[in-house]
Amino acid sequence: MDVLYFAWVRERIGVPKETVDTGAKTVAELVEELKAREERYAAAFADLSALRVAVDQELTDFDASLDGVREVAFFPPMTGG
Amino acid sequence: MRISVQEAAFDLGAEASSFASGHKDMGAIVTFTGVVRDLARGDLDRMVIEHYPGMTEKALEKIASEAQARWNLGDVLVIHRHGALEPGDMIMMVATAAPHRKDAFEAAEYLMDYLKSRAPFWKKEITRDGADWVAAKDEDEDALSRW
């Protein structure tokens, strides 16, 4: 699936988008997989309360299922307007 | 309903006038415009707005649809820019048309409250000394609870 990063999450991880081959069943499991990969992921995901997640372009929670999901995005709280 | 996510500047007068002229049965048109504000130190060089193409449009349509379901509205317009802007530049505007002003005002406030913290935009402030992502404010999140 495609994993997207925005704002400081993108800067910390170093890419805007990557394709991840994962067996994770939930967003939280995907986060754990990514954190175990490299320090830059561990740093970006250190405090989940500072992050928001969207699954297939809908805001959701970290316990959301990844069943059939094509796209997951991680980003800080939004600052529009 | 019209939603536009764009890099280009918009003409507030032309947009407001065009929006207002299309409705003979609407007694109230409210517009709100957000402008890039300089920092207290007066050293903001530019603001860069990042967004999530695809999700942004969907999120704005959802917010506008919610407003149309809650208030008696004839029409809704949302324009939000992304990319690099300078102090004084217009970032975004919303406009609402309703038979009566209470609906138009309340719906415009609702749109603003929701698009501040539920539409995927992120602001970065660039000064001579560096760049900082704007942090979301607790009061912006709290503002949603009144609806």
Automatic annotation (TrEMBL), chain A:
UniProt GO cellular component terms: molybdopterin adenylyltransferase complex
Gene3D superfamilies in UniProt: 3.10.20.30
Keyword Nucleotide-binding carried by entry: yes
InterPro entries per the UniProt record, alphabetical: Beta-grasp_dom_sf, MOCS2A, Mopterin_synth/thiamin_S_b, ThiS/MoaD-like
Keywords annotated in UniProt: Nucleotide-binding
Gene Ontology BP, a term: Mo-molybdopterin cofactor biosynthetic process
Pfam hit, one: ThiS
MF terms (GO), sorted A to Z: nucleotide binding
Recorded family membership: Belongs to the MoaD family.
Name listed for the protein in its UniProt record: Molybdopterin synthase sulfur carrier subunit
Organism: Shimia aestuarii
From TrEMBL, chain B:
Catalytic activity annotation: 2 [molybdopterin-synthase sulfur-carrier protein]-C-terminal-Gly-aminoethanethioate + cyclic pyranopterin phosphate + H2O = molybdopterin + 2 [molybdopterin-synthase sulfur-carrier protein]-C-terminal Gly-Gly + 2 H(+)
Group of enzyme by EC: transferase
Keywords: Molybdenum cofactor biosynthesis
Pfam families from the UniProt entry: MoaE
Pathways involved: Cofactor biosynthesis; molybdopterin biosynthesis
InterPro entries: MoaE_sf, Mopterin_biosynth_MoaE
Organism superkingdom: Bacteria
Gene Ontology molecular function: any one: molybdopterin synthase activity
EC number: 2.8.1.12
Gene Ontology terms describing biological process: Mo-molybdopterin cofactor biosynthetic process
Functional description taken from the UniProt entry: Converts molybdopterin precursor Z into molybdopterin. This requires the incorporation of two sulfur atoms into precursor Z to generate a dithiolene group. The sulfur is provided by MoaD.
Family listed: Belongs to the MoaE family.
Self-association state and partner proteins as the record states: Heterotetramer of 2 MoaD subunits and 2 MoaE subunits. Also stable as homodimer. The enzyme changes between these two forms during catalysis.
Protein name, as recorded: Molybdopterin synthase catalytic subunit
Organism: Shimia aestuarii
Organism phylogeny: Bacteria, Pseudomonadati, Pseudomonadota, Alphaproteobacteria, Rhodobacterales
